[in-house]
Write a structure and sequence with these properties.
Structural class: alpha/beta
Distance between the termini: 50 Å
Strand order of the largest sheet: 2-1-11-10-12-13-14
Largest sheet: 7 strands, mixed
Helix content: 25-40%
Number of strands: 26
Number of helices: 16
Shape: globular
Radius of gyration: 24 Å
């Protein structure tokens, strides 16, 4: 018996890339083009302030902030950081939901050559203290309603100063679109803090450009659903590459107005709100949170062309009795993310009939890779993308290379084989902050070993099957929760689902699906019968109906919590 020689990396990549280029949509570029050249993101702000000073950079419930004002406020914050004695490489925490003040802080930090540390506004005091201690951040920018949480965490950290601002500080007295009460909150008294906007007003707005392409610029923390979160060290080069690469594979690359509500502390939200619009100087309509009426009114009023949401949001919009009353004709590109409810041909067809636009899945990505690492643009004809093996995530962005390897040996696997997704590209994290062992384990020979299970098919498309730690072994056979969840998501009576494993003496493990119903009359028995017609018998899960699924701040199901539910 002969043993096949291990696949050679260079030959493998040459073959895969050739297949991917053959599958490449005709209208899309295969190379990365930088709209303003490969220069720090912070310099992009200065460029637009010089060339489009009065054009809107941000629109926040009616308040329009020009490029010149955004640049000036960013320079003021950079000057303020220097006045407080912070030096290049120091970390600054930003603990707030979406608002223009977040943008002032983010770009100011980059201009000063410091490191942006975003923290989820849903964090507890203990979680805040962990990040502050891990990064040794001495200064934080937050909103007034979160000051109590910061104060509770402060004693255990080296935090020296808290800058606070009302979330509603820059909302007009009469908002142009619906503004939820939870966003338009009255100012609060926050003793022991420094007023953020007042402090900026007292600083000069002279141009500051201490940021560079390759110094650490952000510590984006992994979700930490298992173990403690790790800070991914990203640079401005990572940011600019991610923005340019995604722009390069955009059909027609037309300019327009984008809208986002995705949280900016989350790296996908950072891309959509803080990086992508700055690449081309286009206006961004910023919402603090998801609100269907706000979204519909904003699209109509500001002629939004580019928009992203979760699949559940698209369904919520279409289910509104007044949906047809809004003019959404400006929309050109709409992307969705399938976290709970999965995109299927029926949802896509319904959206297309109502709006004339096509819902397309966003991409595969991780915090470590600056996310948005694949694309599905122009792959929707005849629902090609939705008819593939779950979960189809398209082709790699230019200069992103994917290799499927054996989890145990690290050997490269032939096309069509299930294994570990490993990837390399210009946007890859440089290290895990302060964790050299974790870095060495994750990054080997320039490739990130993701822990994700995937397949590259014969045409070069990538398919994502889930996290290895989530994979189940049922009677010796591999079962992927993502596949079961994707199938369940096609049932009209299912709002969302999460699948985990239960230990079983005979089978090893049994899949358990926690299902949130959209149809209250749907029974577990009926759903199981429906599922039995669509997946193999050994993959069939126990089905448990629940009123709601436990969710993370970024809209994913908390699998660790579901694992606890299994035993209840």
């Amino acid at each position: 018996m002969t043993t096949k020689a291990p696949l050679d990396l260079d030959s493998y990549l040459a073959d895969v890339i050739a297949r991917q280029h053959a599958s490449w949509p005709d209208k899309l570029a295969k190379n990365v083009t930088y709209p303003l050249g490969e220069r720090p993101l912070s310099e992009h702000i200065s460029h637009w302030a010089q060339t489009r000073p009065d054009a809107p950079a941000l629109i926040f419930y009616g308040t329009k902030i020009s490029w010149s004002e955004l640049n000036a406020q960013s320079n003021r914050f950079a000057a303020l950081l220097a006045a407080r004695g912070l030096e290049k490489g120091d970390r600054v925490a930003v603990f707030m939901p979406n608002c223009p003040q977040f943008h002032f802080a983010f770009y100011g930090i980059l201009k000063a050559g410091l490191v942006h540390v975003p923290i989820s506004p849903l964090s507890t005091a203990q979680e805040v203290a962990y990040v502050l201690n891990d990064t040794d951040a001495r200064l934080m920018v937050t909103i007034e309603t979160l000051v109590e949480t910061v104060q509770a965490a402060r004693e255990e950290t080296s935090l020296q100063e808290i800058f606070s601002t009302p979330l509603s500080a820059l909302i007009p007295e009469n908002p142009e679109i619906h503004c939820p009460h939870s966003v338009n909150t009255p100012p609060q008294d926050t003793p022991g803090t420094t007023g953020f906007l007042d402090a900026l007003a007292n600083m000069p707005d002279d141009e500051i450009a201490l940021g560079d392409l390759d110094s650490p610029a952000a510590l984006n923390y992994t979700g930490g659903t298992t173990g403690m979160p790790k800070g991914c060290v990203h640079t401005q080069r990572d940011m600019v590459f991610t923005g340019a690469a995604n722009w390069s594979v955009t059909t027609n690359r037309d300019e327009g107005v984008s809208l986002t509500f995705f949280p900016e502390f989350w790296i996908a939200g950072e891309n959509m709100a803080l990086i992508f619009p700055v690449m081309t100087g286009d206006p961004l309509v910023l919402l603090s949170r998801w609100d269907p009426l706000s979204v519909l009114q904003a699209i109509e009023r500001y002629k939004v062309t580019v928009f992203g949401m979760i699949v559940d949001g698209a369904i919520e919009l279409m289910d509104r009795p007044d949906f047809k009353d809004f003019d959404l004709s400006s929309l050109h590109r709409v992307r969705v993310v399938s976290f709970v409810k999965k995109l299927d041909p029926d949802i896509r067809a319904r959206w297309k009939a109502l709006t004339g636009t096509v819902l397309a899945e966003a991409s595969w990505g991780m915090t470590e890779t600056h996310t948005s690492n694949t694309f599905t643009t122009d792959m929707q004809d005849d629902d090609y993308d939705l008819k593939q093996q779950p979960v189809f995530v398209g082709l790699p962005l230019p200069q992103n290379e994917f290799v499927i390897r054996d989890f145990d040996t690290g050997q490269i696997l032939p096309l069509g084989s299930e294994g570990e997704i490993t990837m390399r590209g210009p946007g890859l994290l440089k290290s895990y902050w302060g964790k050299p062992d974790a870095t060495a384990e994750a990054i080997r020979d320039g490739f990130l070993y993701t822990g994700d299970i995937g397949v590259i098919d014969e045409k070069g498309y990538l398919h994502y099957l889930g996290r290895r730690k989530e994979m189940l072994k049922v009677r010796g056979m591999s079962v992927f929760p993502a596949e079961i969840e994707a199938t369940l998501g096609k049932h009209p009576g299912v709002q969302g689902s999460g699948v985990v494993g239960r230990t079983d003496i005979r089978s090893g493990q049994i899949p358990v699906a926690f299902v949130q119903r959209a149809d209250p009359d749907l029974s577990a028995e009926a759903l199981s019968d429906w599922l039995a017609e669509r997946i193999s018998k050994y993959k069939l899960p126990e089905i448990r109906m629940v009123d709601a699924l436990p969710m993370t701040a970024t809209g994913k199901v908390r699998k660790a919590e579901l694992a606890d539910w299994v035993e209840k």
